Amino acid sequence: MPTFCPCAVFSMEGFLTSKPLTCHPTGYPGGLKTHTARQVFDKKPEQVLRAAVSGMLPKNTLRKARMRKLRLFPGDEHPFAPSDLVPWEMPPRKLRDKGIGWALPEGFEPMNADAYLKRVKTSRHRAEMEGRAAEWGQDIE
Predict the structure, then answer these.
(1) Which GO terms describe its cellular component (predicted)?
(2) What value does the mean pLDDT take over residues 125-135?
(3) Is residue 111 within 8 Å of 90, Cβ to Cβ?
(4) 84 and 108 in one domain?
(5) Are 99 and 46 members of one domain?
């Protein structure tokens, strides 16, 4: 489920000017064809907005992939049904046991005592930390 609104409605009447939006050569001398935003909008309404968004993206290799994800639908019809937004919760971090333990400052308790004690078992600071583990009611085996 998406966590964003997949559709937006807006009007582009203020953007359609008489300045050339696109131009391409025909191959003949003096054969530079230009099209205004109004002409492009009449044929393909989504192309004007696509060109605007493309111009705002960084000019690098990711631009093509980002533009591929842009979905534009002229008119009121689109294939996306209105859906409820679902909040995304970050999954808990998975800590890998590296066999490394370290001495904690006096009076400091670890956020996850079980994960900390798991690391302490193979630590070179084990003797020093066994006393601290007893303070939390834990026992290092």
Answers:
(1) mitochondrial large ribosomal subunit
(2) 63
(3) no
(4) no
(5) no
